[in-house]
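Hypothesis: this fold can be encoded by more than one sequence.
Test: take the structure tokens below, design a sequence, compare later.
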């Protein structure tokens, strides 16, 4: 792997140093970039300050071994500004654009546009990842509201064990939607004794020993609180069908709650929707998110993610990216890519 550290960010340097020591990552597997200490940058800054130095570092590593994963540290920019035109949007997450670097740069690749998503060649695969074969990188982000949140998640990753239950929570009146069908398929793919599922109008709360969680998050009208009160186990992951849950890692006020789009007073960082960083604060080890509208068909598929992680015991990075249909799009994956449920 290659750990990406922003030299302009004190927290990025702290996270990078802690992770490399905690996981025994050699010094030569870290690259320092010099990018704006901002969550949003333009396309020119992405190419100049992030893509170019990362590609240079990758070229320098080519003779000593293949790189499969890029690990971004808190303080590395989050999203690339671009005109939002539905499925032709030019914006993307920094993470997903880096994932697409081999597709963008490979010899003979035809001319491309930054509009819209690119097909993820690893989507749906059950194989061990190989960047040479699948022509993407597995990109994850060590992030959270604070350095303490990130450090705790790294520590939990190292303690991950194959135990606990998967919680799957649908929403009322949505039984025929693709999202709920994927949740039902995910439930059917796991050992029965390891599933807590609800497909009614109720919202599951207070579940103990949670190793995975998939739901509609703040898009479920019956959900009234940010924290469902779960007790997460080390190694727990979470995903939700929420369009903007990865839009920021700036912590909202303690009393803030997700609201409706009509209630602009309830917005935080440009949206009223829930935040993926809450999962890390509440005790999860990894999560997915979206910096802007991905559309349901490009959110992580829980029916692929959960069996990959729990049944096949694949790494966090492999499990999430096998479940995400697109790269060069809005998706982010939060967590240690090496995290795996040990027997």
């Amino acid at each position: 792997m290659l750990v990406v550290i922003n030299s302009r960010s004190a927290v990025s340097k702290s996270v990078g140093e802690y992770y490399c020591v905690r996981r025994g990552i050699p010094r030569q597997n870290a690259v320092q970039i010099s990018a704006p200490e901002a969550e949003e940058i333009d396309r020119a800054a992405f190419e100049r300050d992030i893509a170019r130095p990362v590609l240079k570092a990758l070229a320098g590593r080519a003779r000593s071994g293949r790189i499969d994963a890029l690990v971004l540290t808190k303080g590395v920019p989050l999203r690339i500004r671009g005109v939002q035109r539905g499925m032709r949007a030019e914006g993307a997450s920094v993470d997903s654009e880096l994932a697409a670097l081999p597709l963008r740069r490979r010899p003979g690749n035809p001319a491309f546009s930054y509009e819209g998503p690119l097909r993820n060649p690893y989507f749906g695969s059950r194989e061990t990842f190989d960047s040479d074969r699948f022509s993407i990188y597995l990109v994850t982000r060590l992030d959270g509201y604070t350095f303490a949140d990130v450090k705790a998640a790294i520590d939990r990753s190292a303690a991950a064990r194959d135990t606990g239950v998967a919680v799957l929570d649908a929403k009322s009146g949505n039984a025929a939607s693709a999202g709920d069908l994927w949740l039902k398929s995910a439930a059917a793919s796991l050992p029965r004794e390891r599933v807590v599922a609800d497909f009614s109008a109720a919202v599951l709360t207070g579940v103990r020993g949670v190793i995975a969680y998939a739901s509609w998050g703040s898009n479920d009208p019956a959900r009234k609180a940010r924290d469902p009160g779960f007790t997460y186990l080390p190694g727990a992951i979470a995903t939700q069908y929420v369009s903007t849950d990865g839009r920021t890692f700036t912590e909202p006020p303690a009393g803030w709650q997700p609201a409706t789009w009509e209630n602009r007073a309830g917005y935080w960082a440009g949206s009223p929707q829930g935040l993926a960083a809450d999962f890390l604060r509440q005790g999860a080890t990894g999560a997915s998110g979206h910096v802007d509208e991905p559309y349901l068909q490009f959110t992580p598929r829980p029916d692929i993610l959960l069996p990959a992680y729990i049944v096949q015991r694949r790494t966090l990075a492999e499990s999430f990216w096998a479940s995400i249909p697109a790269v060069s799009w809005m998706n982010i994956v939060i967590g240690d890519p090496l995290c795996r449920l040990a027997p």
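Residues 43-61 form the longest helix (19 residues). DSSP finds ten helices and 15 strands in the chain.
Hypothesis status: open.
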